[in-house]
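[job 0412] stage=fold_complex status=start
inputs:
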Amino acid sequence: MSIELRDVSFTHWQAEKAALQHISVEIPAGQFVVLTGPTGAGKSTFLQLLNGLIPHHIPGKLVGDVLVIGTNTRQSSVAELSKQVGIVFEDPDTQIVSLTVEDDVAFGPSNLDLPPEVIRASIRDALEKTRLTGFENRNPFNLSGGEKQSLAIAGILAMHPPILALDEPTSMLDPIGRSRIISILKGLATETNTTILVVEQNPELVIELADRVLLFDNGQIVKDGTPKEVFSDVGTMLRVGAKLPPVVEVFSELKNLGLWEAGMPLTVDEAFSQLQKIPGQVAKHPTSPQASNRGGKHGFEPAADVQNVEHDYGDGVLALKNINVQFQRGVTTAIIGQNGSGKSTLAHHMVGILTPTNPAGRLTVDGLDTRKTPLDELIKHVNYVFQNPDDQLFQESIAAEIEYGLKNLGIPEQERKERLDWAVEQFRLSDFIDQPPKSLNRGLRTKTAIASIIAMQPDVLLVDEPTTGLDRRESIEIMEVLVNLTRDKTTVIFITHEMDLVSQFAQRVVVMQAGKVLLEGLTEEVFSDPKTLEKASLSLPDVQRLAMMLGWKDYSSLHTTHELATRIASMIKTP
Amino acid sequence: MTLLTYTQRSTLLHRLHPAAKAVWVLSMGLILSLYFNPLPLAILFLISLPFFIIGKIPWKRWYKPLGFVLLLGMIGYFVMSLWLNRPGVFTRYLDIESIVLWRIAGNDFILGPMAISVGGLMYTAGQTLRSMTLVLMVAVFVFSTRPNDLVYLLSKAHIPPKLVFIVMVAYRFFPHIFHKLSVVISAQKLRGWKIQFTNPIQMARQFLPITVPVLTETVRLADFTTWAVESRAYGSGHFSLHHEIKMVPSDWLFIIFWLLVMAVYLYLFIRYGIGPL
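[job 0412] stage=fold_complex status=done
writing structure:
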């Protein structure tokens, strides 16, 4: 047996509730196991048990035994266990220790005191498996997100551990970066006998590779089975708040309507092949493109106008190249693109943190020239929420955190109180209002960070990857609040890699690639150009991909699983 | 922030054995700890300059942080020098150093007499040169030395793994923390944070929006880096390299040159008392 847990419970130091409760599980060698469930369910804690971070580094009370290839993790150090278990964390930046790709991959084998020729062979092999051959002398910090995560995996592979554990390895990556990691895992699963465990919030990414799925909730494994067994149990998945693969969402809705009797497809390909078999063939019912009803050009009033903007960080490479784009007032716009394509740099220009490095570059937001307007004046009109909420949180309570910006703006006490109540209500934070933000989970911290900015009531709000590290339910809650702000004519601009959220919540989209605006327009227009999206390392969400495979010309006007299910249902009813 | 970051280049300085560069750093460190006199320090700086140049360091990117260090140092040392105007403060150039150019406050002043003096200006120049040479030397060393080579060298020198780890993490930490500092400052500026000159306690409190997030990130990074390196077998035994590093004639020449420079400076210090002011 590769991994064996015997009635394991773990409670973090000073925590009231156990992170893991009475876990007993056996994982044979060579199995590909996906760990899924809502945030805080215990998935990452489970991985930390395997290489001895618990109990050797993470303080708390551990009960039961964890055996890794016959070794009890209590009796072996993390360094020793690393020969058996390689662990890849969510944030690749925290795992890179050297300043060239080659050195970083060499770090693990060097610690094992292997002969130089063996280390060199391990480096070559690991770089080849992770498609980083040719990157040997590159500085890891100049790589894209997908490449950095590939490097983190290469660093582990070079040590040849029989068990590989990955904690949300794709959560920070763009769709193509994700595909890259999934493809690497596919290669490992098929070509080696490595036992692979992957924590993944988006199960559709790894569903095809998985032999087994462990569904976590409240520190327990509530379902253990094949992907078919676990994801078909829609009731349990929804009860625990885990994300269902979009295809499963569509077909469970059809089942509920009594329109689907056959087995539950898990992937887009499976769904497509099953839909083709049904009487009347859904695919023979293409519809003509529909006129969009979301955020049209009609009456286009720009809230932000970006003209000829370029930016050079001083390394001679232009991070922004002659950007010309307008953002419509009162509309939700998504800025999408590959890691490092210039999305955040553009946003930083719009709030005045950065200014164009070319004299011709000009930005006007809410009628104000960002070059000429002092920052303390500009932030009354436009503001920005950084990707990591911890970059701004420092107060002893959520209330103080939200009031901080308002006090700095000189808002009178009564109005401050009203704005605080309003912001708290938007994100339903009233139960936590006196708690220190730092003690709360990522979802609540993100909501606090956004609440503290929306309380300042900017006319233009930019939010950088608001859903990173959050589960589906939390992501939807945040996006709904942001979209609701546009009712009061607030212009909302969000940066994301989550294409399904773009499809569902953005009225307009700006696609960036290598510092340029590649494509811009209504969401439907942009999504109807998958080839250009691919150039920007982006891909269509599953809903639209399935609709496109079915030959529906208006596939880009379908935004949610419900809309797709409704369309399929109407086709089935009228063959 | 590009200071204190290793950068892959093909230069003589990059190719030097890390032990040779360590000898350079230690020799310079010893001289800088003994010398306060600006003239020999200026000569030492000029001797070092060609090595900085052959390392092809990115002057364009470094001039801002280096300029900042230089300016900060000059202002700080100049302010300190205002009190160095009484006879007996200096040990070598007694006759010229207490020459007062402009008296600012007399003996009755609460903080003591303040004046711009020749000795004070020499002190400012010497200390500024020391700081600049030290910062530049450390920056060039880090810029041109692979972290893995340094880990190997320190392991070979039987430095305890925990100390080696601190060096390694410092390599990794500085660029990340400097970047984080700039992000946090931007994030708080967008919430209206700014520094207002008031009493020292209030001033210190004004930095909380910056220090709390940066310290939190520092602790988080320290935790994750510890986990990450131990998860890659760090500390399980000896450290080996995937490439061979051997001492070649240019390394020996480099070492001999700097040992000679150190010997000359030590001789002048011991024999003629050159060094202190």
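[job 0412] summary: Residues 302-541 of chain A form a domain with the Rossmann fold fold (CATH 3.40.50.300).
[job 0412] exit 0
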